[in-house]
Design a protein that fits this description.
Blueprint: H1 12-21, H2 54-70, H3 75-87, H4 91-104, H5 109-121, H6 125-135, H7 143-155, H8 159-172, H9 177-190, H10 193-205, H11 211-223, H12 227-235, H13 240-273
Amino acid sequence: MQIWRNHAANGRRLATAALAIVLMTSVSGCGTDRIKTGSIGRTSSGKSIETMSTGELRGTSARLGKAYAANPNDKATAIQFATVLQMDGNAEQSLAVMRKLAIAHPKDRQVLAAYGKALAANGQFEPALDAVRRAQTPEYPDWRLMSAEGAILDQTGQKENARQLYRKALDLKPDEPSVLSNLGMSYVLEGDLRTAETFLASASRQPGADSRVRQNLALVVGLQGRFDEAERIASQELSPEQARANVAYLRSMLAQQNAWSQLKAQDGAKSATN
């Protein structure tokens, strides 16, 4: 079962913990497959990868693995295989697939962008930035690459530079839901959930908003303690069982965070009286 993977009252530390278990993503994305760079998000069956259960992901991974072995230089198959591997927690194998594809297609913008995503998922942020920036061309700027670069910068704490790139991307592609979602998640990292919700709600209303956008919105709503609302949003994309499991996990994570905060406060009080 897919659980939210890629920060409310308790700030940045809770945000980082939440992003470690939400979606995406990424994360991916995010991901945290939070970086949406144009890689394929649906299988031949037409089902979104982000809404698959663990069993479905593994079955899809096995099928794509056979197709990839037969032709490792096929771009569409390799990117989809890498995406599924990343969603299933096999980030290192995903990176190996993308590294080989990048060698075969050294100037392909989509390949370089997906390679950058795979590098970022493995914590290799500088090489990830290099790959994404090499894919970008100043005379024909690509909003997807700007958004991808912004997401990588966000993961290295360069939030202002990241947001500048998101806004440039929105100048090229107004109201693009994936960019609005990345901008919202930038504010999640900062612990500003109200601003994050504003951008994510706007993203979810746009035509073409995908599962990841609405699941990010559900996360932010849940982090503010509105669990029933979060479950309703998540249920638009996931099965009722998956949505309930996600919200239950989020509840337990927040409860644990509150418990640790209370213990820390008690320890501080004891130290002050000694």
